[in-house]
What does this fold into?
Amino acid sequence: MSNSQQKTVNFLRGVPSEEALTKLSPLASQGYRKAIENYGTQVLQYGHFNGFKPLRDILGKMHGVDPGRIVAGNGGMEMISLIFKMLPLNSHIIVEEMTYDRVIHDAARYGHQLTGVKLTPEGLDIDGLKAAFKKTRAAAFYGIPFHQNPTGIDYSPENREMVENVCLEYDALCIWDICYEPLRYDGKTNTPITVSDWGPILVSSFTKTISPGTKCGYMVLPEKRIPLMTKIVANTRLNPNLPTQAFIADFIGSGGYQEYLGYLCELYKPRMDALNSALNSHFEGAYPAAVTGGFFSVIQLHKIPVEKEAAFLAAAAEKGIGVAAAWDAVAPDLRAEKQKQGLLIRLTFPACEPDQLQWGITALKDVSASIG
Ligand SMILES: Cc1ncc(COP(=O)(O)O)c(C=O)c1O
It folds into this structure.
C-alpha cells in the first residue's frame, strides 16, 4: 500500500482470503471438469437426495460411521436449518451466549426459543448448561466447539465431553458445528469428536476450508433420525448440488484437500499472530481468549455504552475501519445484559494482511480512547 493511499481494514467480512481462492481456482476448475467427465448425467440429473454417494462414503470413513448416517447438502447453514425443521415447532434450544448470528435468526423462523449459556476460555459453563436444561427442558443444544464463531474459543476435549454428558442426561440432541475444526494455525491439531450411536450430531461446512461459492456442508445424524430427515430433505430441496459434491469427493480422496488445508493454515497463521499480538497490546482483558485458529475473535469495550455506539462506529468508519456492533450474535435472552457491559465487536482476520490487522487494531484503540 503506497503512503498516499489511506489505510483501511474491514473486520466485518468473515470470508476466505482472495489469494486462497485464487490458489483454489485451477484446482476447482479441474475438479468440476473431472466431475462432469467422470459422472456425466449422474451429477446433472435429480438423485442422491442425502448427498452424492462417493462423498458420503468418504465422510462416513472420516467420522467412523456408516455412510447412511451422513447427509451432505448445500452448506452448513442448510444442514442446521434442516435440523431446526426436524424439531417440533417452538422447541427450546440451548446455545452459547454468543453464536453464529444466522443460527439465531433461522431458529426463530421455526418458533424455537433460544437460551444462552456463558462461555469460558475452556468452552461452555457446565453449571450454566445444567441450570438451562433444568429451566427449559430444551430439546437440543447447539455449539461451535472449534475456534468458536464469534469468540475464537477452542473448547477443551474434556469440556466437550461434559457438554455431551449433560445433553445425554437431559435426553437432548447435542449438535456440534465443527466447521472450523481443520483451521488451526498454531501448529497443533484439534482432537476430533467421537461419534457414537446416540450422537452427538455433527454439522460441518466446506465454506471456509474450500470456498463459500461451492457451498457444500454435511451432517452426521444418529441412524434413527435418518428416515425423518430424508423426508424433510426430499420435501425441501430434493437433490443437493451434485457436481460440487463430486468435485469435493475427488478433492478429498486424492489428497488435494489435505494439502490445501496445509496451505490455508500457513497463510492464515501470520494473520492470526498479528491479531493476537495487537489485541494483547491494545485490548488486554477485552477479548475472551487468544485465537488459535478459525476466523474470528470479539472484543467488548466497557467504556463504550449503547449511547456512544453510533459515535464510535462512525469515528471508526471515518478512519477506514469496518466494524459493527455484534448484538445479532448474542443469544436473545442475554442481549440486554450484555449490552450493559459495553460495545461488542466481532473481528475477522483471514482476509486481512498482518500489517493491516496491526494498524486496524491500533486505530480501533485510538478511536476507543477518543470516544470512551
Ligand atoms: C459456525 C458456522 N456454521 C455454519 C456456517 C455457514 O456455512 P455455509 O456457508 O456452509 O452455510 C458458518 C459460516 O460462516 C459458520 O461460521
Q: What stands out?
A: The chain has a mean pLDDT of 97. Residues 256-282 form the longest helix (27 residues). The chain has two domains: 9-18+258-371, 23-256.
